[in-house]
Gliding motility-associated ABC transporter ATP-binding protein GldA (hydrothermal vent metagenome), 299 residues
Amino acid sequence: MNALNISNVTKRYGSDEVVKNVSLKIEAGERIALLGHNGAGKTTLIKIVLGLTPFNDGEIKVLGGAPGSKKARSLIGFLPESVAFQGALSGREQLRHFARLKSVSLRKADDLLERVGLRDAADKKIATYSKGMRQRVGLAQAILGKPELVLLDEPTSGLDPISRHEFYDIVQELAEAGTAVLLSSHALRELETRTDRIAILRKGQLVANDKITTLRQQAAMPIVLRVTTLAEKVEQVANELGAKRVNGRVVELTCLQNQKITTLNQVTGLGDIIRDVEVTPASLEDLYRHFSSTEREVN
């Protein structure tokens, strides 16, 4: 059973369609990045899944139940973009409150505070916390009770680089334990190697939905090869490869995905005068710009 099954869902405000015939499935243990410009429909779609916003057409099954149903609510974890907690409570008191609501042991709540890096600040008032620390409390409450589906809206906002790395380690642990994870974020570089599939919304429509390797093939965007050679051979290498000189030892050329092996064979065929080759495929930022600027629709 899919953790989340969105089928041909449309949401309208008056005559304005903010979500247009979107279909998206997430399996247990899968990590999906949901991307899109501000106003693309990401937050609206998340609210629909949570049962906070009704939709006009289509069907949604959340862990086999309806959005907002008792079953769905009991098995979902959610981290909103802007977290707000009672400042007069300590981090430990706040998370223990959520633990009681979820019938989770207080010991597990304390363990989660340590897991998200708040052990030393657990008994300090939340009012004294930085934005990143409040975000960690939010993450802890979202994964409290081992939810089967976790929705994370801009989860790394306010986190420093080390905390971001630790956050994605936690996401990996969740996925390995079978939890389905949907992340909505503008931090594209960190998502590139930390998710299993990329879904892109443009003006309410799903315009991309696949693994990044497949999206690269669909976009037919060029791969960049930077070839380092001997200084006295740089002109020869540039001519033979049809490349442009970058500096006194490096030339650069491009090819399509289906030409990569042939091009690499051509480069290595030049022998010992080749010292290094860097191969750079289209990044997630490149793909995001490509799919966000087209009218392509993928279901």
Observations:
- The domain at 222-281 is CATH 3.30.70 (Alpha-Beta Plaits).
- Residues 161-176 form the longest helix (16 residues).
- The longest strand covers residues 16-26.
- The CA atoms of residues 103 and 145 lie 8 Å apart.
